[in-house]
Amino acid sequence: MNLPSPYLLFIGNATDPLSIKMAKSAADWSPEMCVGEYSLPGCSVTTGLPAMTIEEGAQQGAKAFVLGFANSGGVLDPSLVASIITALEAGMDIINGLHDKLADIPEIAEKAQALGRRLIDIRHPTTKFKTGTGVKRPGKRLLTVGTDCSVGKMYTTLSLARGMQSQGIKATFRATGQSGILVAGEGVAVDCVVSDFISGSVEALCPANDDDHWDLIEGQGSLYHPAFAGVSLGLLHGSQPDALVICHALNRDHMRALPGRPLPSLEQVIEMNLTAARITNPDVKVIGVSVNTSSVSEDEALVYCNSVTEQLGLPCVDPIRHGVGALVEALE
Amino acid sequence: MNLPSPYLLFIGNATDPLSIKMAKSAADWSPEMCVGEYSLPGCSVTTGLPAMTIEEGAQQGAKAFVLGFANSGGVLDPSLVASIITALEAGMDIINGLHDKLADIPEIAEKAQALGRRLIDIRHPTTKFKTGTGVKRPGKRLLTVGTDCSVGKMYTTLSLARGMQSQGIKATFRATGQSGILVAGEGVAVDCVVSDFISGSVEALCPANDDDHWDLIEGQGSLYHPAFAGVSLGLLHGSQPDALVICHALNRDHMRALPGRPLPSLEQVIEMNLTAARITNPDVKVIGVSVNTSSVSEDEALVYCNSVTEQLGLPCVDPIRHGVGALVEALE
Predict the structure, then answer these.
(1) Among B130, B145, B176, B196, the residue to mutate for chain A (most A Cβ within 10 A)
(2) Shortest CB distance from B195 goes to which of A132, A223, A234?
(3) Mutate which of A99, A193, A196, A236 to test chain B, going by most B C-beta atoms within 10 A?
(4) Which of A198, A263, B74, B271 is 20 to 30 A distant from B23 in Cα terms?
């Protein structure tokens, strides 16, 4: 993909920390590739990187203006166009992770062309995929699956990749969403693939490999999310996972963007994912649970994780607080 | 959509009867809209309509040349382009149900433009969909689901629609694939929708309706098909079905296009569909089974259907041989 960097992370007027996942991901996992963040009045969240104007970002050497917010449906708010024009004028290319293509917005397309800047829509696959086959291929694969959207599947997968690589285990992070692609520099945004090709695109993303190589595949959505379960199921079948890690966010009171809809239990998520995953890999196992415990104290987090281990007989960690050692151990 | 008709059905050099489903559907369900079929040397299947040349089709008044074959992945074989050019020259518009857009094939695009003909890609949605909500809406809905692809979901759904309409029940057939769209003149090909919007597109296809109105929604694929299960699941969640009809083809020895992969049992299909469907409609019920028994005699078909009824406690019919009366009765 050859993404230009360093990045200036644009978080618009966001007020929901989950909605700036793309910017936060780059700030957390590739801070050396980011000069800072740029926000608009009304914005009440932050990536933790220094705030600056577009001009200051350009002075710090930013080569790309990253649209670092995501919203259900991925539509670009017209009020954000002016900032994009300013970034183009300040010398930056634009990296976009929304469903809307920047080239379809005439004002942006014309300005980019006039100035010779690139508009990079990282969510849109440029490959022509085949339909899935379900045929077993060499190499080992782990997939993170969730009780809901935005519960830490990408963070868990990246933590596993870095943890395993540091132990000398052959492991590759496979990005399946715009945030992961921004961090990894490559991948396939499966939620933007034409639905006939979901599992086929994932078969292409993590093809046959060495017998002792692990593809660590970032999960998307949840089999229990009524908007996105189709994406999750195609991803599950195309991954043919040997190992599943169940991801959960503690104390979330409803499914993402669906007030009133409660989250499924860990047991339900395990059961439904195993039943579906056995269609392409009868030997699939759940090897552990990963929980985003940021809503509680360190002590409460430990109590919760221990209770999950007791209840399910599986290791349970918050990767940010406890590391992923227990999960890697379970994998071996 | 305003499709031009009557149709000349082009079946290429097909040898697999299932691969000309689109042409056969139009011939079976809308024969009054078809003048005949056109095939190439090597073709060993037929729609049952009179064979004719493109010139003869034009003389009989054909206004559209329908690419009546489908193949996994939906790619247009380059050897078929010459026939399309001839049909354009003979005065016809082209109706295409493949993933490939006709406008992307320069030879066809140029000829159509020069002659002022329409290239109609009925598989490609022209609507911009929202993501699904899972929120319950008024009206009743039935969805056909399958043990496999191409087992008779569309035929069952159309049979139910005509059967219910003839009894004065408010019922609308909702097409979700190119064949159904060709018959109904409208619909959404869900396997061509960007995967984030599968269930949202189905919510748009069968919106809130009268409390006593039935949307009869054509199913796609199978939750057990490793290539297409994501499409099937999004369709299931977006449909919010009150009633499911399980569709099956008797004596099929492997999943469509996947030699060696056996079909799931009816019990497995019922269990997995109910578990998933309850996410958007906890009151969903399986009301019957529909079997394509064309591989056996009338007597054997009856024996088989009776055995299914005994085994599952559900009405079981071949809609073509036995009608759908038993299913409509179960619905009431």
Answers:
(1) B196
(2) A234
(3) A196
(4) A198
Cite the DSSP H helix spans in B90-191: 106-115, 153-166, 178-184
Residue ranges of alpha helices (H) inside A253-297 are 266-277
For chain B, what are the domain ranges? 7-121, 140-331
Say which of B134, B190, B196 has its CB closest to residue A99. Answer: B196
* Cβ neighbours of residue B283 closer than 8 Å, sequence gap 6 or more: B242
Cβ contact, residue pair A226, B279, below 8 Å: yes
User: CB B195 to CB A230 under 8 A?
Assistant: yes
Contact state of B230 with A223 under an 8 Å Cβ cutoff = no
Domains A7-121 and A140-331 share a fold: yes
Distance of residue A85 Cα from the nearest chain B Cα, in angstroms: 25
Give the β-pairing of A316-317 and A285-292. parallel
Query: Least CB-CB distance to B237: which of A195, A226, A276?
Result: A226
Cα Rg of chain A, angstroms: 20
Straight-line distance from the first to the last Cα atom of chain A, in angstroms, rounded to the nearest whole number: 33
3-state secondary structure of A146: strand
Contacts of residue B231 in chain A, CB cutoff 8 Å?
Answer: 195-196, 198, 230, 234
Give this complex's ipTM.
Answer: 0.93
The fold of B7-121 is: Rossmann fold (3.40.50)
d(CA B94, CA B113): 12
- pLDDT, tens only, A265-305: 999 999 999 999 999 999 999 999 999 999 999 999 999 99
Considering the segment(s) B140-331 as one domain, its CATH architecture is: 3-Layer(aba) Sandwich (3.40)
Q: What is the dihedral of CA A147, A152, A155, A159, to 10 degrees?
A: -60
Instruction: Note the pLDDT tens digit of each residue in B138-197.
Output: 999 999 999 999 999 999 999 999 999 999 999 999 999 999 999 998 999 999 999 999
